[in-house]
Amino acid sequence: EDPASARMGRKALLDSIEKKLYINDVRAISTNDFVFSRVQGGTELSVSYEVREPLFGNLDGLLTFSHEIKMDKQ
């Protein structure tokens, strides 16, 4: 939702994301999990990941996340 992000190049945007992940101590994903795709009218940035953590015994907790955002050409 950062307005400046729409004007950044891929490298600058991934560097910004990497800093935010580090600051927020997010370890489940990295910038390698983000994918840029060309779509009509711009570029789409998407991320999908799954985290499985043991809870107790043979029970695991599972988190799945998927999100896409269209970045319009300016």
Account of the 3D structure:
The structure is a single chain. The chain is an alpha+beta fold and 74 residues long. 19% of the residues lie in helices and 47% in strands. The chain is built from one helix and three strands; from the N terminus they run H-E-E-E.
List the helices and strands and how they pair.
Layout (H helix, E strand, L loop, with lengths): L9 H14 L10 E6 L2 E15 L2 E14 L2
Features:
1 helix; 19% helix; 3 strands; 74 residues; alpha+beta; three-stranded antiparallel beta sheet
Question: TL;DR of this structure?
Answer:
The chain is of the alpha+beta class and 74 residues long.
- How would a crystallographer describe the biggest sheet? 3 strands, antiparallel
Q: Roughly how many Å is the radius of gyration?
A: 15 Å
General form: elongated
**Strands of the largest sheet, in order across it?**
1-2-3
Assembly status: single chain
Low-confidence stretches: none
Total beta strands? 3
By DSSP (H or I, 4+ residues per run), the number of helices equals 1
The separation of the N and C termini measures 15 Å
